[in-house]
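Appendix B, record 7
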Amino acid sequence: MPTLTFMVAYSDPKPAELPQRRESHVCHTKQPSSTAQHDTHTGSHASKNCNGTTTSVKVTELPTLEEQQQDAIAVGSKRDYVLHELLDTERVYVKDLEILVAALAIPLCKYAGPWAAQAEQMLRPLQLLFSFQYRFLKSLHDCSSVSATAQLFSINANQFETYIDYCGAYHWLNDLLERLRSDSEWPGFINAFQERVALYSDKRRLSIGDFLIKPVQRICKYPLFLRDLLKHTDVTEEPNTSKVLEHSLALLRGICDGVNQVQQRIDSLKLRHRLISSYFDNPELPLSVVSKLGEVVLSGP
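Structure tokens (predicted):
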């Protein structure tokens, strides 16, 4: 609540006549009715001391019961907004996963030819994600409180680790798609993909890459939802809910850290592959030895 300062200034009253004995330097105190006034409405008080200066008192108003209720409603509305946003975006996300599996994963495994087994292995995490997120959406829809929502993330921590596998396969899958682009039948595959997408939604203009990146983007958003819920949860009033939110937030952040570590490891492996590919064999350090080396730690010109 704001702090209110009330200052009341009065004009000096007519000086009283002093007695003849000046040697007695006594400060005569005025009556409160003439030099001081109390505001009975706000509880503020202002007066003049014996030196003629004005003294003011700051009064902090306590929130009324109605104001406290309004604050509680505002906090509850913010949490409800986060929960609705989480659920609404989850519906859209699961639909995108369904499109990925039906319009890309299954047809691509048939189209890849000699790379069919490799494509199936890379797309396996995507199919697992769709199966998990479909069940997760149903459970999320049944959650009636912030605590239940946070608990849902916590009990599915192991399932969320599938995102680490997917993000690892995602980069190699992009490499496979790059090789397939040189195939003469690839444009026909893309047209068929867009037609299949149109059967599910109006996102026909999105490319394969636009769909493949969605799980990577989604796993990074979950901690943001949990952080906002925790921000609008009073730990003194809901200690158990706050504790579950903190635990779930830590778990999801750990998953995101795992995704980043996979990204760094893949970047290192790709760099190693490029260095080996450009390596000129020599008797002192044959290529067979270089190929057995581990990840690149440091490189430069």
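Remarks on this record: The radius of gyration is 35 Å. The CA atoms of residues 99 and 197 lie 6 Å apart.
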